[in-house]
C-alpha cells in the first residue's frame, strides 16, 4: 500500500480546464471519497491517478515516486493501481476465473500460485461457486464483485472505484457498501472512490473531498463536512438543511459569535470573525408553539420515526424534524441553536451585486 | 512499501512504433492512385498534355464514352426501379419472408458479373440449353438478343439493384414511424402516405443509392466484355482492356488517360448526386422506433407472389440455364435425362491445368488478401479509433478511394506503379504479386470497416481495465481487442475472400500466363467457345459463393450492425 499525493495538479481538455490546481494528500490505507455533481472533475482526477490521462501541469506521487509530472509519466500498466469501473469492464470472452486470473497471467505468476490466489480472491468476494460462469451469466452485484476480485488479486498499491454502485438497485447498494467496507478492512488498501451520491461518500469514506468546477472545495472527515462546511456549496451539497445569510453584530459569547440570522440574534460556531452565512441543519431547529420566530409549514413528509418539515421563515426555506405531524399552512415557533457560520468566497461578489441593483 | 517496478519500456515504445504502420498502408492503398494522376500529365517524360489531347480527340474514345454513359445510365435507372420497389415493399409493408427475399436479392451482387452474363446468355438465344429442352429456342443463326446495348443495360440493372436497395432501406429505417402515423391520423391512405410522406423523405437515400449504382456500373467490365465485345460495342473499360491486351505496356500512357476519364466521370456522378442531395436536405427529428408495417390487406399475397416470381426470373432461371448448359455433353446438344453428364465439371475441376491453376490462384489470392488485410486492419482500426490524429483521419477519408474508383482505374494505376519498382530493375508486372497488391489496395475498406465498427463499439474501459492490471499495449491488443473484434474480423475476411474470388476487372488487366484467376478463365473459356466448361466452372463458383454467404449469414447476430453488406 502506498500514499497518494497530488500537487498543483491541473488538466485541460482542448483548452477547457477540467481540474485546477488540485493539492491533496491521501495516507496509505486511507479510504477517500471524491464527491461532487457531474462535470465537477472527480472522474478526471481518478483517470489521472490511474494514468489514463496525462496532467496538463502539476504532479502525482504514489508511494514516494512521481508517476506523473513535468518530465515523467508512468503508464497505467506500470503503476500497480487497481480500478473498478462503473461499467465493471469485465472481459466478456473470459470466464470469471479467467477475468480474475488475467492480472496474474500478465505478471507470469506460476500456475499453482495463480490458481491459489484466484481462489482466495473469489472466496473473499463470495464468488467461489461462480468461477466457471461467463460475465453475461452474472447479476449486476456479482459482476461488481468480480471486478473487485480482479483488483484484489494482484495486491495493488491503490484501488480506484469509479461510481461502482451507479448501475445497481437500492437494495444491492446497501449490501455492496458492506462488501466495500469489508474489502477495505481486509486489504488495508489505499482507496479512492468517486461518487455523486453523498450518502455513499459519508457512509464509506474516512475522508471526503467535495469537488465543484474542477476544484476541491473541502477535504475533510464526513462529520466535519456536515458540521463545519467551508462554503455555501459544501453546506448545500452535503447533508440536509438550509444556508441563510447572516449579519455580524461584532459581539461574541462563550467563544461563539453572536450573529443576526432571520432577524434574530443567535449564537454560532465559526472559524472566522467575519462570516457571511450560516448553515442550519435540521438538528439545529427546535419547534415550539411560543417561540418568537414564526414559520409556516410548506410540506410535511414522513421519514419513519419522525417527520421532515419544510418551513418558510421570512422568505427563507428551512428544514426541520418533528415528532408530530404538522398540517400545511400551520404556523409554528422556531428556535435556532448550534449553528455553524462561515464566509463564502462568493459572498463579496453577491454583496457587490446586490449593491449594484440597489 | 514496494518500490515502483522498473519501467519495462516496451509498452511505451510500441505505442510510438504503431503509427509507423500507417506509412506502408497509405503507400499501398493510395500510392497507385496518386501515381495514375501524375501519369495523366506526363510524369516521367516531363510535363506534357500530348497523350491527353491524342486520346481525347480520337473518335473511338468519344464512342466508348458515349456507350459507357448510355449503358451505365440505363442500368442505373433499371437498378433504381428494381431496388426501390423491393426496398419500399420490404421496409414499409407487412409482406412475409423478408429475410429470405433480401438474401436472394443480394446474390446477384455477390456473383461475378461475367458469370451473370454467361448465365443469362444460356437463357436466351438459339443455343440456349434450357429453351431447347422446352422446344422454345429461336432458329439457329438468329442473333443472341443479349449481345446488344439493351442486354448490357438489363444485366447492369439487375447486378446493381441491390446497391440501391441497401442504401434506400437504410434510409427508410431512419424515417421516424411517428411521421407516418401522423400522416395516417390526418386521414391519408397508405398510398398517399407513400407518395406524400415517405417518398420525399427517402429521396436523398434513393439518389445516393442511384449514384453508387451508376459509379459501379460505369466501372463494370465483366458484363460489357461478355455481351458488348462480341457485338462490337465497346465501353471505356472494354476499350482499355482491348488496347492493353492488343498492344501491351507500350500503350500505358494512353490507357492511363482513358482510365482517368472513367475516374472523372465517376467522380462527376458522385458530385452531381451530392449537389442534388444538398439542395433537398432536411433534418429528421424523432425516434426511428418500431419499423413501419403498412397493411397491404388483400394485395399482400399477389405482391408476395410477384416479388418471388421476379426473384425466380432474375436469379433462379439464369442459374438453372447455366446449370443445364454445364450438364450437356457438347455445346448445342439438347439436354435430356439420358445424356446429362458431369463430364464438363470433371474436366474443368480436375483435368484442365488452366482451370485448376486458376482455382489455386484465385483461392491463394483471396486467402492471401484476406489474411494480410486481417493482420494490418486490426492495429490500423485500433489506431484510428483510439489514437485518432489528423493523419489517421485523412487516411480514413481517402481509403475508400481505391474501392470506390472503377476497377480498371485501379488496375492501370497498379501497372504504372509496379511496372518498374522504384530504385530497382525489378518489375512486378506479369507476376501474381501485382494482382495481390491491387487486391490489397482495392479491398482494404471491405476489411477495415467491420473491424472499425466493432472496435468503436468496444467499451474503452475494457482496455483500460487490462492496462490497470498490468497488461501493456501488445498484450491488450492480443488478449482483449483481438478476441472481441474477432467475429467482425472474420466476417470482413470472408467478405474480402468472396469479393476477391469474384473479381474479374482488376485481374483481367493484370493477369499473364500462369497467373490466371477464375474470373479470367471463365471469360477466356467463353471467349474461345468452351461454353459448357465455362458454365460448369461458373456453377461451381456460384455454389462456393452461396455457401460462404450462408456461413456469414449464420453468424449474423454476432456482428455489429452494418458488418454484413446485405443486412444494413
UniProtKB/TrEMBL annotation, chain A:
<dbReference type="InterPro" id="IPR017871">
    <property type="entry name" value="ABC_transporter-like_CS"/>
</dbReference>
<feature type="domain" description="ABC transporter">
    <location>
        <begin position="4"/>
        <end position="238"/>
    </location>
</feature>
<dbReference type="InterPro" id="IPR050093">
    <property type="entry name" value="ABC_SmlMolc_Importer"/>
</dbReference>
<dbReference type="GO" id="GO:0043190">
    <property type="term" value="C:ATP-binding cassette (ABC) transporter complex"/>
</dbReference>
<dbReference type="InterPro" id="IPR027417">
    <property type="entry name" value="P-loop_NTPase"/>
</dbReference>
<dbReference type="GO" id="GO:0005524">
    <property type="term" value="F:ATP binding"/>
</dbReference>
<keyword id="KW-0813">Transport</keyword>
<keyword id="KW-0547">Nucleotide-binding</keyword>
<dbReference type="InterPro" id="IPR013611">
    <property type="entry name" value="Transp-assoc_OB_typ2"/>
</dbReference>
<dbReference type="InterPro" id="IPR003439">
    <property type="entry name" value="ABC_transporter-like_ATP-bd"/>
</dbReference>
<protein>
    <submittedName>
        <fullName>Iron(III) transport system ATP-binding protein</fullName>
    </submittedName>
</protein>
<dbReference type="Pfam" id="PF08402">
    <property type="entry name" value="TOBE_2"/>
</dbReference>
<keyword id="KW-0067">ATP-binding</keyword>
<dbReference type="InterPro" id="IPR008995">
    <property type="entry name" value="Mo/tungstate-bd_C_term_dom"/>
</dbReference>
<dbReference type="InterPro" id="IPR003593">
    <property type="entry name" value="AAA+_ATPase"/>
</dbReference>
<dbReference type="GO" id="GO:0015697">
    <property type="term" value="P:quaternary ammonium group transport"/>
</dbReference>
<dbReference type="GO" id="GO:0022857">
    <property type="term" value="F:transmembrane transporter activity"/>
</dbReference>
<dbReference type="GO" id="GO:0016887">
    <property type="term" value="F:ATP hydrolysis activity"/>
</dbReference>
<dbReference type="Pfam" id="PF00005">
    <property type="entry name" value="ABC_tran"/>
</dbReference>
